[in-house]
Amino acid sequence: MSAEPLLKVRGLGVTFRTGDRVTVASQDVNFELKAGQVLAVVGESGSGKSVSAMALTRLLPPEPNCVIQGEVLLNGRDLLKLSEAELTQVRGREIAYIFQDPGTSLNPVYSIAYQIGEAIRLHRPEVTDVSAEVIHSLEAVHIKEPARVAQQYPHELSGGMQQRVMIAMALACNPKILVADEPTTALDVTIQKEIMDLLSRLRVERGMSIILITHNFGIVAHFADLVQVMRSGHIVEQGPAEQVMNQPQHPYTKGLIACIPRLGQRRRRLTTLKDELKAS
Ligand SMILES: Nc1ncnc2c1ncn2[C@@H]1O[C@H](COP(=O)(O)OP(=O)(O)O)[C@@H](O)[C@H]1O
Ligand SMILES: [Mg+2]
């Protein structure tokens, strides 16, 4: 692992303008990520996690509807200064994304082989045997019968298999950073664990960095090196995962940690958090 960070984010902020409405979705986001590190971004719905992650490669509406501030330095190159054509090369190839609901990200009318093949053709034109690479990428996510699955269509696969396919598609482009935006939220608990184990393994095997967006603080403890806690568009606390988990400084972080569901306990609802803070 090199000492120099792969990614340096400085003063990142996103503002939406729709008509007269101005929404500051995220503000003053700063962090560094080294190769092979996992950063977990936690915080309740609407806190600006997805928007901040999409801003890294300007995967947002164009100006003036959406204004992005700050610097996103990938190996020293500011992505926010690149043209749209250059950014298309960065997306997928250097920073790849997987989203919450694979059912809506996969195209229902094309086979799995076609969709992964397209991603490879677009981002890695140097690959000559695309079919072999498709199979290889399905093997990489531990799909048992890759040749059979490749010929299937999204609706023929379970949610867990669809998410594996999405990960395979992201990996087929061999990215340096994988942004996984709530990758397991739509899946049941046992499949969630399988997917997280898979991401863990891929990070070790490939030295890939992962930005994991989750509202499940439980996942963080096992998986992340760094944690960033977001609330209303701001980072309220960040640092090494162990430190944030064991010695949370901010009351909001303490509240989130108190909400981690534990076996044999009834889950405390996040909506009571405000009341808890008031009482404390
Ligand atoms: N395209 C958009 N136009 C206007 N506002 C948006 C858009 N996308 C997201 N937002 C707003 O930005 C804020 C942060 O959203 P988001 O990053 O999706 O939250 P999270 O991922 O933490 O749930 C929310 O207030 C949301 O309504
Ligand atoms: Mg989100």
Q: Can you walk through the features of this model?
A:
It is built from twelve helices and ten strands. It is α/β, with parallel strands linked by helices. α4 (112-123) crosses α5 (130-140) and α5 packs across α7. It is globular, with a radius of gyration of 19 Å. Bound molecules: adenosine-5'-diphosphate and magnesium ion. Magnesium ion (MG) binds at residues 49-50, 181.
Describe the structure using short key phrases.
four-stranded antiparallel β-sheet; six-stranded mixed β-sheet; 280 residues; 10 strands; binds adenosine-5'-diphosphate; 39% helix; alpha/beta; 12 helices; binds magnesium ion
Order of H and E elements: EEEHEEHEHHHHHEHEHEEHHH
Task: Name the average pLDDT.
Answer: 89
Helix content percent band = 25-40%
Bound molecules: adenosine-5'-diphosphate, magnesium ion
**Beta content:** 15-25%
CA-based gyration radius: 19 Å
How many helical stretches? 12
Helix/strand/pairing category = alpha/beta
Could you name the ranges where pLDDT drops below 50 across 5 or more consecutive residues?
Answer: 264-276
Report the end-to-end length measured between terminal Cα atoms: 42 Å
**Molecular shape:** globular
Largest sheet: 6 strands, mixed
Quantity of strands, as a count: 10
As laid out across the biggest beta sheet, the strand order is: 6-7-8-3-9-10
